[in-house]
Write a structure and sequence with these properties.
Layout: H1 3-22, H2 37-40, H3 74-89, H4 95-117, H5 120-134, H6 138-154, H7 158-172, E1 182-187, E2 193-201, E3 204-209, E4 221-226, E5 247-248, H8 251-257, E6 261-262, E7 264-273, E8 277-288, E9 293-298, E10 303-308, H9 312-321, H10 343-364
Antiparallel strand pairs: 1-2, 1-10, 2-3, 3-4, 4-7, 5-6, 7-8, 8-9, 9-10
Helix pairs in contact: 1-10, 4-5, 6-7
The structure holds 2-acetamido-2-deoxy-beta-D-glucopyranose.
The site of 2-acetamido-2-deoxy-beta-D-glucopyranose (NAG) has 3 residues, from strand 2.
Length: 385
């Protein structure tokens, strides 16, 4: 197949899947898996009602029946294989990681004892045990590899630098705090629900407001967090440079969230008076609750906002209400364009389908639209000190 033809076909497929979705054939549910299922039901996203698919009404629909799944490209398959392999190297977020860290603490103490006791055999043994398990903690590996990278660069060892750079990125990809990219929704007090966009600039997490309010409007940063494990030593700082200890949960809360501790990171929260005047940054904390929920706390004003992933319908609705449209203007289509039509024409058709689908989806989105976002009632367990 030639490239333009393939592009056209995939555009039509995208379009078709939106059409199907609007007919209730597909249901869009935020993906979820095992451990936190119970909790996640709090955030359950909207689901299309199940209607039986309609009989094909146009002869064009026949073209899309019994389609084989698209063959994945070799690059994509290779990447998936690598991701899986990398995932196996590191302990995943949650209690396995906390257990690993407590074993590391024990071994470190034993190492210190061995050194002060002057027992080199014990020292060697403990040291190699420690080295081995350290390799399973992605945050620790990221930090160590970055330090090695700096050293290799400083000493002009380009091959080493390249290897450490790759290892560092591999570990970084397995750290939950570096996997929050994209859209989230949280309740900003009496301003109501707002959407934010989490982005990364290097190791800085920067959360922009996608929708805003009269204090901090859209497009502005709502909070930011420096996640870099290596911070330049500032003179006279001290306490504020120390990493924050994770929050220990009560037994009940631990069960609910599937983890005994919640990691947290220092950041800066943005506040302002109406019309974005007197904006200022204040001490804040990013608290990871699970891979899919987090909160940010504005410490001095004792405000904590919980963020959850919006369902696709809610995301579209909030974006549209804020003047972000999938297509410029709507064009009325009597019938779909032919498959060999110009790519631009097909694109326009797909965009129209998306807009119509969105309208459909919004009609069915009623008061429960925000039920997917948890607003932190019943959360005394997760509050910060
Ligand atoms: C979110 O941020 C990314 C990266 O900067 C950007 O590409 C994307 O368009 C943003 N999304 C919205 C809805 O603002």
């Amino acid at each position: 197949m030639t490239k333009p033809y393939r592009t056209a076909l995939s555009l039509l497929l995208v379009c078709l899947s939106f059409l199907l979705a609007s007919k209730g054939v597909y249901s869009f549910i935020v993906p979820r898996n095992g451990a936190l299922r119970e909790t996640r039901s709090l955030f359950t996203s909207f689901q299309f009602e199940d209607e039986s698919p309609e009989e094909p009404t146009s002869n064009r629909q026949a073209e899309f029946q019994n389609l084989e799944p698209v063959q994945e490209s070799s690059i994509r398959m290779e990447r998936k294989r690598k991701d899986k392999e990398t995932g196996k190297k590191f302990v995943s977020y949650g209690d396995d990681l906390w257990r690993l860290r407590s074993v590391m603490n024990k071994l470190s103490r034993r190492l210190l004892d061995a050194i002060s006791d002057g027992t080199p055999e014990v020292e060697d043994k403990v040291r190699s045990q420690l080295r081995e398990i350290e390799q399973q903690d992605p945050e620790l590996v990221y930090e160590m590899e970055l330090k090695d990278l700096q050293l290799a660069k400083a000493t002009g060892k380009t091959d080493d630098a390249e290897r450490h750079g790759e290892n560092a990125m591999e570990a970084r990809g397995c750290i939950p705090a570096f996997n929050l990219e994209g859209l989230w929704v949280g309740k900003y007090g009496h301003h109501g629900y707002e959407m934010i966009n989490v982005t990364y600039q290097g190791d800085q997490l920067i959360a922009y407001k996608v929708t805003g309010d009269k204090n901090v409007p859209k497009g502005e940063i709502t909070f930011q967090v420096d996640l870099s494990p290596i911070k330049p030593k500032a003179i006279g700082s001290g306490k504020m440079d120390m990493p924050l200890q994770p929050i220990s949960l009560t037994e009940k809360a631990a069960k609910k969230w599937g983890t005994k501790q919640l990691p947290r990171y220092r950041g800066l929260g943005h506040v302002a008076e109406p019309r974005f005047s007197n904006g200022q940054w204040m001490e804040g904390q990013l608290i990871l609750i699970s891979q899919e929920y987090f909160s940010f706390a504005w410490i001095p004003i004792e405000t904590q906002i919980f963020f959850g992933r919006p369902s696709p319908e809610l995301a579209l609705k909030m974006l549209r209400e804020n003047g972000v449209s999938a297509s410029g203007g709507l064009k009325a289509w009597e019938s779909p364009p032919p498959i060999d039509a110009d790519v631009e024409v097909l694109k326009e058709f797909a965009a129209t389908c998306l807009d119509l689908t969105t309208e459909d989806a919004e009609e069915s989105l009623e008061g429960g639209a925000f039920s997917c976002i948890w607003h932190g009632v019943d959360t005394e367990e997760c509050s910060f000190q």
